[in-house]
Every structure is written in structure tokens, then in C-alpha cells.
Amino acid sequence: MDFTIALVKGDGIGPDIVAEGCNVLSAVCKKHGHHVRYVEALAGGAALDQTGVPLPPESLKKCQEADSVLLGAVGGPKWDTLPSNLRPEKALLGLRSGLGLFCNLRPAVIYPQLKDACPLKDAIIEGGLDLMIVRELTGGIYFGKRGTTENGAYDTMEYTVPEIDRIVRNGFDIAMARKKNLCSVDKANILNNSQLWRSRVEEIAKEYPEVTVSHLYVDNAAMQLVHNPRQFDVIVTGNMFGDILSDEASQITGSIGMLPSASTRTDDFGMYEPIHGSAPDIAGQDLANPIATILSVAMMLRYSFHLATEADEVEAAVGKVLDQGYRTGDIFSQGMKKVGTKEMGRLIAEAL
Questions:
Q1: Which of 48, 104, 232, 342 has the fewest CB atoms below 10 angstroms from its CB?
Q2: In Å, how far are 147, 165, 255 from 111, measured between CA atoms?
Q3: One of 90, 186, 243, 272 is an active-site residue; which one?
Q4: Are residues 136 and 243 in the same domain?
């Protein structure tokens, strides 16, 4: 298989971690006879400095013409005083809308080797944790009508039936490939759009009789994530609720540097990125943890290119290196072997 990957390295540690993601992707592709071509696209603060805008049109075009996108991280204190329309984070919204990415996939996994980093009691996570949050990405309150009046401000939370149906079907499809257990999170006791959301979930559930479906209000879901996270397999929810719950789930794992994510649409195209930020204070110092980016590469192989074997091998290589005791600074503990960004990437590629 031949494919083209657009690299949006971004800011801070973005270039450091993307480099190791590419090294591992190239290694697994070489092993299986695939050919991968990389095309760089400027976005974020780096694009602001060079072009005056966070997402130049030519960068979006490169991403649109690629088979998939690998993103590092954008933003940093350097640009915090800029007007909101010029903030580096605007590049993310521009990429999501310009590429039609409406579905965000955020796995939350506790690696047995890093179990001690989890803030929850051992009894709660006994047997491990592996859940997937499916978040709607282009609708809801972040994209609704908004404004400021003389004495207040407003933001509108709105969803259409087609917007709900396409994300809910994605959730069911992912549940079918996992443990066939789907929890829909809403606020149907208060919000009209949540009542519509719940009714659409119930209707679409008829197409997936093998999947067990449950509903939770978002406040209860937030509590259940810390009380009994192992009850969840797949959570499907709207934009704002998904934003909050996926960040909560990432903290439960205790290792934000380990967690990947994907933003996808109805075809195989996707944008893949670690969930952590740009960490400009350690940029270029060989200190960043590249594992979340490497696991994002595994998600790319699985969801965009349907190369499950290759994805499994990347994830197994990460586990093997952790089993051998290698750790970057953010996940280091006494008795382990401390390594830098480049060495961690090299070890994982070698383990393939």
C-alpha cells in the first residue's frame, strides 16, 4: 500500500514528537512492504510567525490532498495575548472544519506497567481500563449562534438530526468492534437538544440489536468515570460534554503523555494527534514523551488504512519497551531506565 501523510508539526514539542511518530510509522511500513510519503504543512504559532495567519490556505490544501494527517501540538504562551481569531488554536478549528472532521475518538487506557500513576484506588481499576469516548466535533455550543449584549452574553447549543445520526452511528460501529456496549451521555432532563439526541440514539439502536445501550446524564457520567470507570466500553456524546469527559478520562489514566486521539469523517480520512499540549518549556530538549504520538500512528493505521496487524504491532512494541523498564521523564519512577524522546522512539521502532 502507498499513502501520503501530511505532517503538521506545530509548536513547542510538536516537531520532536512527530519525528518519532514518523520513525515508527516508517519502520512498520518498511516491515510490511508499504510505502509512505510525508508532506509538511505549516500551522499554529509557527505559521503565525511566518505568514501572519494560524492556518495558511496552502497548508489546508496539502492536508486535503493527503491520505491522512499527523499533528503534533499547537499554541503556547508566546501567542496568548493575540486576538482570538489569530490564536494558534484557530488552526485546529480550521483543520477540523476544512477537512470535514466531525468525529473525535479518544481512548482512555491504563497500561499495566504504569498502573501506579493512576490516581484511583487499585480496587477500582483492578483488571485494567480500556474505554473509548466518541465525541461530536463540529456542532453543539461551540459552533452555535453567539453574541454579547449590553448586559450579558449567549451561546447557543443546537444539533440537527443528521448531525446526531452520523456521530451516533459511528459510536455504534465502534462498539460493534469492541465489547458491544454503548453509553450515550446527554442532559435530557433539562435540554431540548439532548431529548432529541436521546430519541435518535434509541431509534438508531434498532439497527444494532447486538449492542447493549444505556443512557447517563452528563453530571452522573462524570461521577461514574471516577467511581466505576470499568463499566464503560464506548461513550458517545456531544461536543461540549465530550470535551469535558474525555479530559477527565485522560487524567484517570494518570499518564497524559500516553494517550492518542483521532478526528475522522465518514470516509477513511482522519487527523491523528496526541491529546497533550505543546509544552514549549521542554521543546527541543529531548525530554518529551513521544508515545502518545506513536499510538496516534497506530490509530491511523487501524482507522484510516485498515491495517489492524500493523496497528497491533505498534501498540505491542510500546508495551514491550515499557516492560523493559524504559521511561521518559513524565512517566519515570524509581528503578526504571530514563530515556529521552529520540531514544524512546528508537527503542519502539527497534522493537517492531
A1: 342
A2: 44, 33, 9
A3: 243
A4: yes
Exactly one of 9, 62, 90, 187 is catalytic; which is it?
A: 187
Whether residue 205 is found in the same domain as residue 233? yes
Q: Please choose, from the candidates 152, 119, 156, the residue with its C-alpha nearest in 3D space to the C-alpha of residue 140.
A: 156
**Overall number of domains in the chain:** 2
Q: Is 247 labeled as catalytic in the residue annotation?
A: yes
Please tell me the predicted confidence (pLDDT) of residue 224: 97
Q: Is residue 44 part of a domain?
A: yes
In a domain, 273, yes or no: no
Q: Is the domain of 125 the same as that of 246?
A: yes
**Rounded Cα distance, 86 and 218, in Å:** 32
Residue 132 pLDDT > 90, yes or no?
yes
pTM across the whole model: 0.92
Sign of the torsion angle spanned by Cα atoms 94, 82, 51, 289: negative
Q: CA 284 to CA 265: how far, in whole Å?
A: 33
Examine the residue annotation and report whether 154 is marked as an active-site residue of this protein.
Answer: no
With CA atoms as reference, report the closest residue to 232 among 244, 216, 256, 210: 216
Q: Which of 173, 219, 268, 323 is catalytic?
A: 219
* Annotated catalytic residue, options 155, 173, 247, 268: 247
Residue 122 reports pLDDT greater than 90: no
What is the residue range of 135's domain? 119-253
* 267 classed as catalytic: no
Residues 211, 151 share a domain: yes
49 belongs to the catalytic site: no
